[in-house]
Amino acid sequence: AADLDTMQKLGIVRVVNCTRGCPNFHPDQLAYLRLELADAGHQKISHCFDAVVSAIDCARAAGGACLVHCTAGISRSPALVIAYLMKTKRWSLAAALAHMQKCRPSVSPNPAFMAQLAAYEASLFARP
């Protein structure tokens, strides 16, 4: 998130920063969505899902990419990307999690985030 040259080479035009302490390093060059989330059981993240989907879609529509990051890339940011995959690709929670773990084996959203993702999955795939 700090290396502007690498981010530009990767085509990143937007950043979702879901940390509490990491600054938005390049606010003059990149669009940011700041979500100050804790990696803790009490943290609600489901209210952020639609904003993250919108941020990623906006970057893609502009022909670019969106970096979604937290501190370690294990729980917070993967949970948000899983929500994106569930919403846009219509993947189940299990499929989205498996894909993320294939790309990055250390991915492991905390149990509270998994519960919120399960509720999101139920709402996305509810039958009328």
From TrEMBL:
This is protein-tyrosine-phosphatase. Belongs to the protein-tyrosine phosphatase family. Non-receptor class dual specificity subfamily. Keywords: Hydrolase, Protein phosphatase. GO terms for cellular component: cytoplasm. InterPro entries: Dual-sp_phosphatase_cat-dom, Prot-tyrosine_phosphatase-like, Tyr_Pase_AS, Tyr_Pase_dom, TYR_PHOSPHATASE_DUAL_dom. Residues 47-107 form the Tyrosine specific protein phosphatases domain. Transmembrane segments: none annotated. GO terms for molecular function: protein tyrosine phosphatase activity. SMART domains: DSPc (SM00195). Its EC number is 3.1.3.48. The keyword Hydrolase applies. One of its GO terms (biological process) is negative regulation of MAPK cascade. Residues 1-126 form the Tyrosine-protein phosphatase domain. It holds the Pfam family DSPc.
